[in-house]
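User: Um, any thoughts?
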Amino acid sequence: MIKEEILLSFEEKVLNMLEKINVKLDKLLGNESSGKSEIKTNTSSAIETVKPSEVVEKQEAEEKAMEKPPVEGRRVCPECGSTEFRTEEDKTQVLFQQGGMKIYAKRYICKKCGYEL
């Protein structure tokens, strides 16, 4: 009898904690509901949960959506879509030589992923 009472009180505490967690997850996801989350007291029923990986994927998608689209006419990295490049002289391509001074072509390297254009 005492063990059953202890188990019932433990189940109630766990359900209350799960309810608090669901409310916090709703706030984090921006789905603030006016009522409390519905959790059934039956232990055999499945409890709907949100996987942390889904939350991270949603946040990454929102960040990508907030990024500015590349301005038309600018260089865009085909690997990552970045528009930030550093320039280096390409010593293999001489554009012209005047008075012993060589002018080399430039190559553009993406700052984010290192892709060369």
User: Anything to note?
Assistant: Confidence is low (pLDDT under 50) at residues 33-41. Residues 69-117 form one domain.
